[in-house]
Design goal:
Layout: H1 5-15, H2 59-63, H3 75-83, H4 90-107, E1 123-126, H5 133-141, E2 148-152, H6 168-176, H7 181-184, E3 188-192, H8 213-224, E4 227-230, E5 244-247, E6 252-257, H9 262-273, H10 279-285, H11 297-303, H12 307-311, E7 315-318, H13 324-332, H14 338-347, E8 352-355, H15 357-370, H16 373-391, E9 399-402, H17 404-413
Parallel strand pairs: 1-6, 1-7, 2-3, 3-6, 8-9
Antiparallel strand pairs: 4-5
Helix pairs in contact: 3-4, 9-11, 13-15, 15-16, 16-17
Length: 422
């Protein structure tokens, strides 16, 4: 082979930044080169730069358990953490706390040779809008030592149709785990708006229900536990794309949905049992203001969930509708309460914001009237504070007091009718 000094210099400079001058090499046969002659050459220091070296992952670190039973918070500790942010909903908080604690124990289970394998207990939470389903999920994510992600079921469609594939749920979990597959396989997924994929009964359309029953059927293998090929970047799958196999056997799924209108299904089921001489007595014991507490798996089936997916969500819990006392507490008591958020906003403008106690009672009264739950509180407070947030940053004020008269004037001035539920 024939090489010149300049070609050799350019080639090696592109590989190494050592600055070696090949024109000064001793016994360098540049013409009619035999590559075996390189063995006897005296080469300067040509180590590969540190940034160009391939960094191998430590196997010991990957194999190391990142949790022990001492690190696992007990159910009452998990619930205490939820109590600081979520008002009420004792039953739902207990169910979530126990499920998360058992999830840790399942991950740390040792093989004792007795063939007893702890299976996961996926959860489904039912509650009207604004009762705290998504807040429960966001709050518990702060406490966990395993990957946790919240996904929305409304964008999911069957494979082959416009929308996100069901496997995109696991793509989000992989992203949270920084694409560490063993860590992602021990994570927790909260699927929000699960009621939006219910089967559309008595649908006169001849087209397929690609975002309803088809998505439920696709979710079965994820909830049960199987090896799923996940596209690394999400989106649609195509044949030439490299897939990441993820085993969902140890992934805990928590589902939540409003299931608007399911109270009618519950009432129909309860009425079928109220017959004979005991009809009056049994009817009197039913609390018609909170029908959600009587929910059963057959009600979910009547709403539109297929029996197979209900069986894979064995823990069914509900969230109570928020009464006046709960709304009053939500307004001021949690660490991240609505009023504290507005006080923080004004602090950033060096303004001290205070509210009269009568204003809180007025806001709660309006929220109960509009029946929008905790989200209705924010809508009302935002309407009251809008003009103040617009004007005060331009004014030289040290404090601002929200009085009852001011709050009433702001609500009357605004088009508050748009906040009322239909």
């Amino acid at each position: 082979m024939n090489f010149c000094h300049e070609c050799m210099q350019k080639a090696f400079d592109s590989i190494s930044k050592s600055g070696m001058d090949f024109s000064k090499l001793q016994n360098m046969p540049f013409m009619n080169m035999n590559l075996n002659d390189f063995a006897g050459m005296q080469m300067p220091n040509t180590e590969i730069p540190e940034k160009n070296k391939i960094k191998k992952k430590s196997k010991a670190k990957d194999a190391e358990k990142f949790l022990t039973m001492k690190d696992v918070p007990a159910p009452h500790q998990i619930k205490a953490h939820l109590d600081a942010y979520v008002i009420g909903q004792e039953r739902a908080k207990r169910a979530v706390s126990v499920a998360v604690y058992n999830h840790y124990k399942r991950l740390l289970q040792k093989d004792s040779g007795d063939d007893v394998e702890i299976e996961k207990s996926n959860i489904i939470m039912v509650g009207s809008t604004g009762t705290g389903k998504t807040l429960l999920a966001r709050t518990i994510a702060k406490l966990l030592h395993v990957p946790f992600t919240i996904v929305d079921a409304t964008v999911l469609t069957e494979a082959g149709y416009v929308g996100e594939d069901i496997e995109s749920i696991l793509t989000r979990l992989l992203q949270v785990a920084d694409y560490n597959v063993p860590e992602a396989e021990q994570g927790i997924v909260f699927i929000d708006e699960i009621d939006k994929i219910a089967r559309k009964g008595d649908n006169p359309s001849i087209t397929r229900d690609v975002s309803g029953e088809g998505v439920q059927q696709g979710l079965l293998k994820l909830l049960e536990g199987s090896v799923v090929n996940v596209p690394p970047q999400g989106g649609r799958k195509h044949p030439d794309q490299k897939m990441i196999p993820v085993n969902t056997k140890n992934i805990l799924f928590i589902c939540g949905g409003a299931f608007d209108g399911i109270e009618k299904k519950i009432a129909q089921r309860l009425n079928t049992h109220v017959v004979g001489y005991s009809a009056v007595r049994n009817t009197a014991t039913i609390d018609k203001s909170n029908m959600m507490q009587y929910i059963a798996p057959q009600d979910l089936k009547s709403f539109g969930l297929i029996p197979e997916i209900i069986g894979r969500l064995p823990v069914l819990t509900y969230l109570n509708p928020l009464d006046r006392a709960a709304l009053r507490s939500i307004l001021t008591e949690p660490k991240n309460s609505i009023i504290k958020q507005y006080i923080k906003l004004f602090e950033m403008d060096n303004v001290k914001l205070t509210f009269e106690d009568a204003v809180f009672e007025y806001i709660v009264d309006k929220a109960v009237e509009y029946k929008l739950g905790a989200r209705g509180l924010r809508s009302i407070v935002e309407t009251i504070m809008m003009d103040a947030m617009f004007e005060i940053p331009s004014e030289q004020k040290d404090n601002f007091v929200v009085t009852l008269d001011y709050a009433k004037r702001q609500l009357e001035k605004a088009n508050i009718a748009r906040l009322q539920s239909a």
